[in-house]
Write a structure and sequence with these properties.
This protein is α/β, with parallel strands linked by helices. Helix content is 37%, strand content 19%. Strands 1, 2, 3, 4, 5, 6, 11, 12 and 13 form a nine-stranded mixed beta sheet that branches. Strands 8-7-14 form a three-stranded mixed beta sheet, with no helix packed on it.
């Protein structure tokens, strides 16, 4: 048994497996076991793998359980100290595994980590899903170093420091298996989108840390399963964000956050309507309708999440509103924002060894 398992969850992903799996094998086989978890594909993915890569283990999932459920099912069947959850539409590079595993080996409180995520199509720029590490603002809106909303920065080395982050992207997420199973894995209610942020939030509420490792670089296509402008994605993003906030935010903040979010989500819906994106407008309404119609269920999920939490998780949260800073303040880059924590003051590199073994 190898210490690390690279697990690719695939759904009708023959074209991505054909394009990217050879490099995953080439640059990973000495460091990790490589496993494909097939999420009930209806294309010829499995036949392609059996014919061309018979040495690769394939876990067959009986129905499409989404990102959250698919990984939960697959990872219960895999023994390794570290899981690497890798999207099928990611191009890896030589030496991408070793620096992250070395980082995690040095600090037992480090539960998850992500590499630098650049765009496959524009390789000098960061990619939407993860960029140089994830954060949220005080109202629960996620953003990244290198990407705020739809603005992607060119990578000029401005984020070449290894820093603690609020969330690590599910496009390429290194996670300590013990912690993953200890917390019950992903919340399968999410199906897809933001389940990794929810998991990272729960990790931090139990005194674990998340890190970004800039010396590991991968390139992400993005939108391989659901395109960015798909109303289904709009629905999942808005619905899951509400679920995530309600589950994880301290009780004394809930009322004010939801009051603000009701207004801001309403503005977003109206913006979709005036842009003639009727299906996206409807998706926002459906997301809120789901949440309010399932209050008994989400209260139960909140009680489960809060049970065992040991802190209120205030690190690496932007104190203001990223929406207002971006749309009204013109702050398009992470470096335009006030420092989120002392470590980010001036955005200078921090030695990797600093804080090792500390929480």
């Amino acid at each position: 048994m190898k210490k690390t398992a690279v697990v690719i969850l695939s759904w009708n992903g023959r074209k991505f497996l054909e394009q990217f799996l050879p490099d995953v094998i080439r640059f990973s086989q000495d460091e990790a076991e490589i496993i494909i978890a097939d999420n009930a594909s209806t294309d010829d993915s499995i036949e392609y793998l059996q014919l061309n890569f018979p040495q690769i283990r394939v876990i067959k999932i009986e129905k499409n359980a989404g990102y959250a459920g698919g990984y939960n099912i697959a990872l219960k069947q895999i023994e390794a100290e570290y899981y690497v959850l890798l999207n099928s539409d990611v191009e890896v590079t030589e030496g991408w595994i070793k620096p992250v595993i070395e980082m995690m080996n040095k600090d037992s409180s480090l539960a998850a980590c992500q590499p630098k995520i650049r765009s496959f199509y524009n390789k000098e720029y960061f990619e939407y899903a993860g960029a140089a590490g994830g954060y949220i603002d005080s109202l629960g809106y996620p953003f990244c170093r290198g990407r705020i909303f739809d603005t992607l920065e060119k990578d000029t080395g401005q984020y070449d420091d290894a820093v603690e982050v609020f969330w690590a992207t599910g496009a390429c997420m290194f996670v300590r298996s013990k912690v993953f199973h200890e917390l019950g894995g992903f919340d399968e209610t999410f199906f897809a989108h933001m389940e990794e942020i929810d998991l990272c939030w729960r990790m931090q509420s139990r005194d674990y840390k998340l890190m970004y490792c800039p010396t590991s670089v991968v390139y992400h296509v993005g939108g391989g399963t659901l395109p960015k402008n798909n109303p289904r994605k709009t629905y999942l993003n808005f619905r899951n964000n509400l679920l995530m906030i309600f589950k994880n935010v301290p009780g004394y903040k809930l009322f004010w956050i939801f009051l603000a979010r009701f207004s801001l989500d309403g503005i977003a819906a109206i913006k979709f309507l005036f842009a003639n994106h009727i299906h996206d407008f409807t998706a926002v309404i459906k997301a809120h309708f789901y949440f309010y119609m399932h209050l008994r269920y989400v209260f139960r999920k909140r009680r489960e999440t809060q049970r065992g939490a040991t802190n209120k998780v205030t690190k690496n949260v932007f104190r203001g509103s990223i929406v207002l800073k971006y749309y009204l303040g013109g702050k398009r880059k992470f470096t335009d924002l006030p420092p989120i924590s002392p470590k980010h003051q001036g955005h200078t590199p921090a030695p990797l060894e600093r804080g090792i073994g500390q929480k």
